[in-house]
Design a protein that fits this description.
- The complex is a heterodimer.
- By secondary structure, chain A is an alpha/beta fold.
- Chain A contains 17 helices and 24 strands.
- Chain A folds into 2 domains: about 240 residues, 3-Layer(aba) Sandwich (Rossmann fold), CATH 3.40.50; about 170 residues, P-loop containing nucleotide triphosphate hydrolases (Rossmann fold).
- In chain A, strands 6-9-10-3-11-12 form a 6-stranded mixed sheet, with helices on both faces. A 6-stranded mixed sheet of chain A has the order 18-21-22-15-23-24, sandwiched between helices.
- Chain A starts with a strand and ends in a 6-residue tail after the last helix.
- Chain B has a two-stranded antiparallel ribbon.
- The N and C termini of chain B lie close together (about 5 Å).
- Classes of the chains: A alpha/beta, B mainly alpha.
Chain lengths: ~500, ~400
């Protein structure tokens, strides 16, 4: 290591009830790619948010280029040449790339010597030059709305570079990208380092760290566990340090035993709310004992497909059959009663009523059934015992038991609420959309195990995921959606990761 | 941030921050703040605020007046107040019910007027015996109000017309259509209002002799209280109430749970309109016995705020309606005895409502500062819910 650019001394940050960062001491060298590794809630993002001025540490101090600094706002951070790419991009969608980049630091020229105007032309040239230099391939005049997610992310990178950032923080940059795009991004990150920038990478994906990072710091429950040289550390060891114990990378999975056909989708076409055909002529079927996994980049019709099967969206044409019965016109409730469970992608605004208690959320699909009601009245004792049983069986943790307001629970526990509720209905067909998004490794493994367990109990499972790892780990059959149509469909053994990735990008057709 | 650190939070903060009683402490604090502000105002105009407040209570029958006219007593004052209270309670319940379903019924006044007018014409001017007329008035009021509510709900469900827009427009339509009919057909040439209804149809018994006093008995006062209690149990313990709250809190999730959201919206608005209709008949055929043309009852709009002050909780509304009605009824007496103008009571009402509108903000501030104060107290911090902890402390931290 040549020269230290950022140093953290005894950084401690407490939130009520938890210590997010506990006495962290780190030094990051100039010109290296430094990875921060840890499960959800390990304190990576909090630590970086403090470096970027979003929070202030309760104790300890930061040194940037050897000088003690107090970073109390993102502006302060930018002044210190620190930049951050957040998980959620902060772009104005009907502005061009350049307009977004220069916002707040516009250069002004005077028209006719008097009237101030933004000097767009010069800025565009500067943006183009930066894009060229780092291999970002971004058109400075494109409108954000027309750009793909990966391109928008590169606009965010350009935004930092335009402000002369020397220290670039990436918060989970690959979560939304396809395998090919990930490789492209990792190359960009290498370019940044080769141009003398310092890159801090927050992630929990071990293989990416292995590919690009020079050193990595591992956090667990707010404490710094170790700082390792990536070249000399195996991914197994990193994983062990991160979780605190050894974990199995592959799921134990018996060969599938397909039974009768449960779900058949026949030439289904669905329009989304903007009257755009999000799904076109899709046909497939799912059997008992099968995990049918649909891969695809976000926004290629997955959510519309799941919504249409569950009755939340009307089919424009085509049919949906459940155990050979046409259910295309049936209501959500009728489909539920036939045996259809749905874990929606958007758990907070679809899957849960955040201001309801844990108990009220757990009975959401059952409250009207016999036993849960006495005539017009709710059977509160039964609600309580049911909620208690479910929270124990699925290890749902909450501060005030079953009366806890779900909004105050952690994301992982919120997801457990939905999973408990949906699996407990003992439905023949279970649809999981992004069931493990944003969860830590422990929770991910347990959910995937549940999925396979349900399959082994003879349920039909439709798994829709953006995570290729998840698809590869769980699927018996893989289908790939691209632009609303099914690109390919094959038994899991016959497709490898790269091929699925190519289909997801629309690079391959059948 | 550091100035809060490690300091034990004060008793006041702990009192307001205690979750279990917050539903009570925050509104009481709002009321206290507004009374304080008004007291300053009364001082500025050179009067004694304590006597002014005392006269408010005397005027509404809570405290005895120094002397009474013949046939009057504290009881007659109290019953007068309760007569005005009955429609206020119904109207506020109407607002609260719609609010629980995620709808904003700003058209209570219009629904009241239509119900009152229909009952006046169809029953109030006919020669029905009291035993038939009174139930008919109630029934008709409920039906007319619920029809308007149903229309608003239907427009929302079928054509996605914002209920605020449609109910305001319906307010105008009802106001002028009813006004037209009153002025062309049912006008009393002396009072310029609609002709007084027959006593048999009136929901308030006036001039009931009791001892040497003449009392007003609002017949629907007890039923109104019962409706509030019923509504409380409906929301808390019935399947329908569960669905209604689910729709109110998150329509998408309600749909996902298989609830027929459209049906719920229409039925909630219908019921809300029905309650507004009951407010209408107790107002126009109870408290008054005639209708002023081309005018909407201010009570219909006040009820929105009363409902807010009562936290949209049926039992809370029983008390918030009582408070606001008392202030309103006491103001005339305050004007005549203390010389503080009647409008000051409207000011008090306005202030209370303004402060209670800020209650969510107050709750947020109290929770945030309490959390900050407790953050320095590692041991006690765990006892607090972690709601939005990162977010809250971040914002609080910036401020300090």
């Amino acid at each position: 290591m040549t020269e230290t650019i950022v140093e953290m001394r005894h950084i401690t940050k407490r939130f009520p009830g938890i210590i997010a960062n506990d006495d962290i001491n780190l030094s990051i060298g100039k010109g290296e790619i430094f990875a921060l590794l840890g499960e959800n809630g390990a304190g990576k993002s909090t630590l970086m948010s403090m470096l970027f001025g979003l929070y202030e540490p309760d104790e300890g101090e930061f040194l940037v280029r050897g000088q003690p600094v107090r970073i109390d706002s993102p502006n302060q951070a930018v002044a210190l040449d620190i930049g951050m790419v957040h998980q959620h991009f902060q772009l104005v969608s009907n502005f061009t790339v350049t307009e977004n980049i220069i916002m707040g630091v516009e250069t002004v020229k005077r028209r006719l010597g008097i009237f101030p105007a933004v000097d767009l032309k010069n800025s565009e040239n500067k943006v183009a030059a930066l894009s060229e230099q780092y291999g970002l391939e971004v058109d400075p005049r494109a409108v954000i709305d027309d750009l793909q997610i990966s391109e928008r992310q590169r606009v965010e990178i350009l935004k930092m570079l335009y402000r002369n950032a020397e220290i670039l923080i990436f918060d989970e940059p690959t979560a939304v990208l396809t395998p090919q795009e990930i490789q492209f991004l990792l190359q960009i990150i290498r370019n940044l380092r080769d141009n003398g920038k310092t890159v801090i990478l927050i992630t929990h994906k071990l293989d990416e760290i292995k590919q690009v990072a020079d050193r990595c710091a591992i956090l667990n429950r707010g404490r710094l566990i170790a700082v390792r040289d990536v070249r000399t550390t195996s991914t197994q060891e990193m994983a062990r340090l991160m979780v605190g114990h050894d974990i199995a990378f592959t799921l134990a999975k018996k060969p599938a035993q397909f039974g009768e056909e449960i779900l058949r989708v026949d030439k289904l076409t669905v329009e989304n709310e903007e009257k755009y055909e999000a799904l076109r002529q899709v046909s497939f079927s799912v059997h008992r004992g099968e995990i049918y996994a649909l891969a695809g980049v976000a926004g290629n019709g997955q959510v519309e497909l799941a919504d249409a099967i569950c009755g939340l969206l009307q089919a424009k044409s085509g049919r949906v059959y459940f155990r050979q019965t046409d259910i295309t016109q049936e209501s959500v409730r009728t489909r539920n009663l036939r045996g259809l469970s749905y874990i929606p992608e958007d758990r907070q605004s679809v899957g849960l009523i955040l201001d309801f208690s844990l108990q009220d959320n757990l009975v959401m699909k059952r409250y009207y059934q016999p036993g849960f009601r006495k005539g017009l009245w709710i059977n509160r004792e039964h609600w309580q015992s049911y909620a208690k049983r479910l929270s124990q069986a699925y290890d749902i943790r909450s501060a005030n038991g079953i009366q806890t307001i779900v909004r105050s629970m952690s994301g992982g526990n919120q997801q457990k609420v939905i999973i408990a509720r949906e699996i407990d209905q003992d439905s023949d067909l279970q649809i999981y959309v992004q069931p493990t998004r944003g969860l830590d490794i422990g929770a991910i493994t347990s959910i995937r195990e549940k999925l396979i367990q349900e399959r082994d109990h003879g349920k039909a499972i439709l798994l829709i995921s953006l995570e290729l790892d998840e698809i590869m780990a769980c699927a018996d059959t893989i289908g790939v959606l691209y632009h609303g149509s099914l690109q390919t469909e094959a038994p899991a053994g016959q497709l490898d990761l790269e091929t699925v990735g190519a289909y997801m990008m629309g690079a391959k057709h059948e | 941030m550091s100035k809060h650190m490690g300091k034990k939070p004060g008793w006041f903060l702990r009192l307001l921050g205690y979750k279990k009683t917050q539903f009570l402490t925050i509104p009481l604090f709002s009321i206290f703040c507004s009374l304080l502000a008004i007291a300053v105002l009364i001082l500025l105009i050179g009067k004694n605020p304590l006597t002014a407040f005392q006269s408010l209570l005397q005027g509404s029958g809570w405290l005895p007046k120094p002397n009474y006219a013949a046939g009057k007593s504290i009881l007659t004052d109290l019953l007068d107040m309760l007569d005005a209270y009955t429609p206020m309670l119904f109207a506020s319940l109407a607002v609260a019910l719609a609010f629980k379903a995620g709808l904003f019924n700003i058209g209570v006044s219009g629904q009241m007027l239509l119900a009152g007018f229909a009952a006046t014409v169809l029953v109030g001017y006919q020669d029905f015996p009291a035993g038939l007329a009174k139930p008919l008035v109630v029934l008709l009021g409920f039906i007319c109000g619920s029809l308007v509510g149903a229309l608003i709900g239907f427009l929302k469900y079928r054509f996605n017309v914002n209920e605020v827009v449609s109910s305001i427009m319906l307010n105008y339509i009802i106001q002028y259509v009813v006004g037209f009919f009153i002025q062309t057909r049912y006008v009393d040439v002396v009072s310029r209002q609609s002709r007084a209804i027959k006593a048999a149809a009136r929901l308030t018994l006036v001039d009931v002799a009791w001892g040497n006093m003449k009392l007003r008995l609002p017949l629907l006062f007890i039923p109104a209280l019962l409706v509030a209690v019923l509504l409380y149990f409906y929301l808390k313990s019935t399947v329908g109430g569960y669905e209604l709250k689910a729709v109110g809190l998150n329509r998408q999730a309600a749909r996902y749970a298989g609830i027929k959201v459209g049906k719920r919206l229409v039925s909630s608005m219908t019921l809300s309109g029905g309650l507004a209709g009951l407010a209408g008949v107790t107002y126009y055929l109870g408290y008054y016995a005639s209708i002023k043309p081309n005018e909407l009852a201010a009570l219909g709009f006040d009820s929105i705020a009363v409902s807010l002050l009562g936290n949209s909780h049926p039992l809370g509304i029983i008390f918030s309606s009582l408070l606001i009605t008392s202030l309103d009824k006491g103001s005339t007496y305050m004007n005549s005895t203390v010389g503080v103008r009647q409008e000051v009571s409207s000011l008090v009402t306005g202030m209370i409502l303004l402060f209670s509108a800020c209650s969510a903000y107050m709750r947020y501030k109290v929770d945030a500062s309490l959390r900050l104060a407790l953050a320095g107290f590692a041991g006690t911090a765990a006892a607090l819910p972690q709601q939005d902890s990162a977010d809250g402390s971040g914002k609080g931290g910036k401020k300090a």
